[in-house]
Write a structure and sequence with these properties.
Strand content: 25-35%
Structural class: mainly beta
Number of strands: 24
Helix content: under 10%
Radius of gyration: 25 Å
Distance between the termini: 25 Å
Number of helices: 5
Shape: flat
Oligomer: single chain
């Protein structure tokens, strides 16, 4: 499987793939693939993910190899030339291996940023954005502007020529509605207009009526990167807006877009896949949205998740994605013509959750995070549950 993956990487220029991920019963002992050698010498171009994919049934548990190799002091720093032992069972070392002659000073990575960055979306979550400076007008009174044109900024009187900013757009407000006595809380998203105010959504009207505000928690406002630019002229002498030259062609800027400081490094330089550090209550960890899509996504799509650093999530966390099992009417017992609406919820049959795929978190905030769908056997949709990568139900 790893060989197929490597040939695919050569064709597409991608080292990141997780077709190796399978739904397997979680066990304390990590099983090795058949035909593995007793030792392996790390080579240039290897990644921790590649090595684990060759020899382990579940490659996201690559730390199992390093735990059986005490001569490797730091499992995040493996170098070409290092010799690792694969002769172990149930985490008990069977062979003593000396540290190999390192051929290079540069350690290998787990999943390098360069191999996945093309698929990532520069999204972020904030608690508020109204205080941010915003685009109040565009060159020649245009409705949209992009690279090579200027935008006029209000709310940043201290801006001076040479200051550089990102242009971001508030797009969605995410909330969690707490439903006491029921299985799962309700997750709610609301689209924002050009001013950042909620648009009318009659689909959530009754939820807002039934559940009071005191039972709603703001998860955050999503800001989408639109463009970037440099201030060329500040305010002064009757001019109440600063001038900024747009220098990127990512998306068109419009009135109401906001400005934030430029991130020196928005993503980690490498990702180390690992299972969640703590268990979350069923229904808490779910898919909030699919970036640049309505409700459905697939491999290499970015999805918003309803859990963040406060739930122990960090970059590299791997979840499995599950469609919630349906509540079905037992037509054998109730009758083939029985209308489902006439059967009470507690008298319906809860069907098992259905596995959809895996996702790895690449950007984490306090109450939310963003992940990249790695593999799937069916489309990922809003509302799907997130579980341990080895979950079976």
């Amino acid at each position: 499987m790893a060989g197929k993956f490597r040939s695919l990487a050569q064709r597409l220029g991608i080292v990141f793939t997780v077709a190796l991920l399978t739904v397997a019963t979680y066990a304390t002992a990590q099983t090795l693939r058949e035909g593995h050698p007793d030792t392996y010498v790390v080579k240039r171009g290897d990644t921790l993910w590649d090595i684990a994919g060759r020899f382990l049934q579940r490659p996201w548990l690559w730390p199992e190899i390093w735990q059986a190799n005490p001569q490797i002091r730091n499992p995040h720093l493996i170098y070409p030339g290092d010799v690792i032992s694969l002769a172990y069972l149930d985490r008990v070392q069977q062979a003593q291996v000396q540290q190999g002659p390192r051929t290079e000073a540069q350690p290998i990575n787990a999943i390098p940023l360069a191999d996945v960055e093309k698929f990532l979306k520069d999204l972020r979550v904030v608690d508020s954005f109204e205080q941010l400076p915003y685009v109040v007008g565009l060159e020649e009174d245009r409705l949209r502007s992009t690279q090579g044109r200027v935008a006029y900024i209000r709310g940043w009187a201290a801006a001076t020529p040479g200051d550089r900013f990102l242009v971001v757009r508030p797009t969605v407000r995410y909330r969690e509605i707490k439903r006491r006595g029921l299985c799962c809380n309700r997750l709610q998203s609301a689209d924002l207009d050009f001013r950042g105010r909620r648009t009318a959504d009659f689909g959530t009207y009754w939820s807002n009526v039934v559940f009071p505000d005191k039972g709603k928690e703001l998860l955050g406002y999503e800001l989408v990167r639109v463009n970037a630019g440099t201030v060329t002229r500040g305010e002064g002498t009757g001019i109440q807006a600063s001038t900024m030259l747009l220098d990127q062609s990512e998306r068109e800027v419009r009135i109401g877009d906001r400005l934030i400081a430029v991130d020196a490094q928005p993503y980690d330089l490498q990702f180390f896949p690992h299972p969640p550090k703590q268990q979350t209550k069923y229904g808490k960890a779910r898919v909030l949205a699919v970036a640049d899509a309505l409700v459905t996504g697939g491999p290499r799509d970015v999805i918003a998740l309803s859990v963040g650093s406060r739930e122990g999530v960090d970059n590299g966390t791997v979840f499995s994605i599950w469609r919630e099992g349906s509540q079905a009417v037992d037509r054998v017992e109730k009758g083939a013509d029985r209308d489902p609406d006439t059967v009470f919820f507690e008298n319906k049959v809860r069907l098992p959750d259905e596995f959809a795929g895996h996702v790895i978190v690449f950007r984490t905030f306090e109450k939310m995070s963003y992940g990249l769908v790695m593999d799937s056997v069916k489309p990922t949709q809003i509302g799907y549950h997130l579980k341990h990568p080895d979950a079976t139900l």
